[in-house]
């Protein structure tokens, strides 16, 4: 049966439309994608590089090491030590979503370069607000965001990027369906870029400045990750889904347990998971702080490649399978074990994705902890769980309920991951089932998952519960309401819970009452892994770059409140930072959502000054346990955080912010680094950083510092003045001296950093972009 399905799907793959590929010259070799006909698969080069690496290192390698090290800029001389050395890499491609693409392209434009050096794409998925229904919300978004979409479209055409129009789908699903292939190294300006690991890629979330480097043909720098092995045994079955694997991993490793590491899944249990299921797992690996996650190449990936019109890539990957699986006997820095036979469905939350509740204990735990038992809304889809298989399995639950006269008793929102998935589930009757069940089908976009949700059913501040198949559930994440208790789970469990409308319902054992008065239990969900009729591509939403772009104009209106050309940040003046004000001492969790909120603020992502008005408004001030209320130490009055920062900047007063553990976890948004820099901040001092955000701060010329003694956090008061000393001696691995002054007393402390020599040059130049321009002016870039 498996062979017949694979052969049929390969034939069905030929139904995929013939895309425009004029941007590169034709190539007789198998191209990286149907959009990149002039760019061949890199297996030959990767094999050559890997031979060099194996000759140097000896011994078996993990899959992560094979893919990563084979993309080294200088494999013959690069220092390689897990967790210590900085690798200089050559990614195969770059992906940008529309919210982060604005600032990324503005930075690229300011670099003065004429076109991107590697295949790159922009995907319009973040600016569509869920309000009524898919078609109406999409039309409204096109109207409201016309200026931004026009800017992105023209910039893509001018600088040789592919452009996926609004309505095409979520960036990670478009990548999986069209661009991902086993062995790919890709960076993307979204934290859930690791979704591509489900197809054997190393896909890493980064800030826009990193993307600019790669698009400018500068090697991308990454601290050599450690490798965590996740050994899977048993088989996925029944109510258990791939989502439960990553929910369990999150429980084991916590939100910072994967920091600085690649999570590599292996073992016999892998074979029971579909390609899109593997993508679900690697997607949500961002929630444990992992650099990325990856699965080894197997038949399920080959089948998916064929189903999406890439049979030739499947054949080439099969020929090169030794490059795409770990070597026998390879060494992991840590190994966790998960038996899929005994894995119970999980529901994680609220307020953090690593607080796991087995479905059998969810009701009791909710009652014990005072979580609102009544569920107000159930939402399925998003970039994590919106595949054909996901939707089909949810439809099977819906059909079961409908056969007993039941449907969702609460609002039930459905987000298809792509236009291709939407068109296919519409053709196959799945949308019809979900709508009869009570579902509202939203646009092919991120929507409520990122806070793009015009929610009307509860008042701001009203305590309530929602369940989603999304990946992230920080405070206020989905609806800006800090009292919303969001639980993340599988789409199957979210669908079942929508029928009962309560957290204490366990579909594995609890019965429901049909309209005929009879009791029944829901059947275990089921669904096709891939459509037996092949995928329907739906509406063509892709814009290829033209062959000639010299006459294309990219205009930014100086009066616009959505877009703003960038001015370079000031260079370091060579002096120590003396008596900095503490703008805010942050208490507890501080994600990039807390630093730079999304939701309604997304419309200002291309205008640095306007979006800076959301800086730190979600962070809790340790002085008064309030959000967006800090004391202006100059005037003595309280005001919003951005207002105080602007006052300090206007008076040329340098300031810093102080935080706790895993500062900057969550989204890859570099605005969380750009805004403090724009409003006069010079340093962020915390107990520990999340990887992407730490890099983003460095890129913008900010000092990202950690307390050598975490207890020194307690020495900092809102009225403290902090000095960072001997900056002229700043060097890799050398702690920084600092002094904290409090009401006439002072404490001398040490601060650590992870700056290497190049990153110190960024600091001296004022930003990585400034350094790029300096080097370009001298006739070359920093290789």
Automatic annotation (TrEMBL):
Domain Aconitase/3-isopropylmalate dehydratase large subunit alpha/beta/alpha: residue ranges: 65-501
GO cellular component, as recorded: cytosol; mitochondrion
Single GO MF annotation: metal ion binding
Cofactor binding, per record: Binds 1 [4Fe-4S] cluster per subunit.
Source organism (scientific name): Drosophila mauritiana
Signal peptide: none
EC number(s) given by UniProt: 4.2.1.3
Protein name: Aconitate hydratase, mitochondrial
Function: Catalyzes the isomerization of citrate to isocitrate via cis-aconitate.
